[in-house]
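Hey, I'm writing a tutorial for new members on how sequence and structure tokens pair up, and I'd like a real worked example in the thread rather than a made-up one. If someone can provide the structure for the chain below, I'll link this post from the tutorial.
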Amino acid sequence: MKDSPAKVIVIPAKPEMAQNKTVQRQKRVAAYCRVSTDEEEQLSSYEAQRTYYTDKIMSNREWTMAGIFADEGITGTSARKRPEFLRMIHLCKQKKIDIILTKSISRFARNTVDCLNYIRALRELGIAVIFEKENINTLEADSELLITMLGAFAQAESESISANVRWGKRQAMREGRVSIQYTHLYAFEKGPDGQPMIIPQQAEVVKKIFRQYLLGDSLRMIKNTLETEGIPNVYGKKGWSITAIRSILTNEKYCGDVLLQKTFISDCISRKVIKNTGQLPMYLIQNHHEGIIDRDTFQAAQAELARRNSAKSPSKKYAPTGKSCYASKYALSERLVCGECGTLYRRCTWTSNGKKRVVWRCVSRVDYGKKYCHYSPTLGEEQLHQAILSAINSAMSDKRELIREITGAMELEIAPIPGENLSLADIERRLEELNDQTRELVAQAARAEDASAYTSQLKAIMDEVAALKEKRSFIQEQRKTNNQAVQRITYAATAMEEASAEITEWNEGLIRQLVDTVRVVSAEKIIVFLRGGGQIEQTMAH
């Protein structure tokens, strides 16, 4: 029960006691400085900033040095690419820094989101960031509003600068001005005139890679050959990667051209590099420098790459799209077929009693058991290779005839061009004539009282022009295909000429050139169909 009213008792302050309990210590102050590029002028600016902040901190008796953190030549749009900035933040979280000095918001971050996130995190830790140019202390009440506005301006400035840089680079591309990075470019170095200069010894390696690939070797086989021969890579070290070999085969610089804007940066914030698959124009500069290989060889390699990449996988169950990166790895993957169901065979590795054994099996049998294929045998790779080599060697007894038959069969791939009596030069001349006629008719129609009389003539000319242009495109495409076929025939003939009369070792490239199909009849018998049309029945050894 309340007997008396509430009473407030005031406890007097004791400032002298609070002062005695407060530990007076110096503030641990760090400075962050950054320059935008690694140019010499900017680096001198960086050194000047270090000197400035060292003097500023050491001359203040209430401050002690907690470190100067500086990122040189690194973009400010993303903190992830600024190791010193991240190291400074880490020390802040460990309570080893009280104040951070920096020149301006744009030096601290040009990404508004990053800027605010870091400032808020530091403020929760009681750490102030002082922006000297804007005169802002982040521990003050109205600082966040100002930082948001100024940070947005800094980000907009960064985006504007980035857009200007991109425009400048693309304008340079349009004008054919090229900047080549030589660090990762094999067989070329920067010449005295600024143009790519061929390194002769490495150029021979490039020719070897293209030659072996067009002869039928896989990328892995080429890799093994280069490593076995002790050929150093672009960095002068032993060991080659499949990616590096594929890069050489697809790099247009080796035929003397330069393709610009293969990739582009999505935006100045994420700076993600995106492969250009048609989003932006590309610029091809032909005959920019001396090539190592001719353009026909380069185009033949691109066609072969496309052919192998589009090869069908023998397994629909595990590759429903019909494509597989392993489809063309082995020559037999495209050639060994089951005599019972007609399905391709697949290379498999069996492990028994700790020992591995490589075999070839009918894909239908592997995927579906005996549902569709009942009797297809499993063949050991070693025995299969020996049987195919024996069949080829029996045909190689008359090597000249075999070469003639195979090259003859390959020549059938060269399709005749309809309208061969009308050359490309004839078509161009006729198109020029029709253009002249069109200009004359248009002029006459403009002077005539009734222009309708010229309509039918103009339509007839336009129809003929369209037909001629279509014919021109067809002939050009057909000739391109035929040139690639001729290139394959040349390489096949060369491979067979260089092959010994008796082949003792398995060669994937040579098999691709000589063999069309191998049909598995039984565990004891196969039939080898050669590219020239001949066939050899061969017994399997056991």
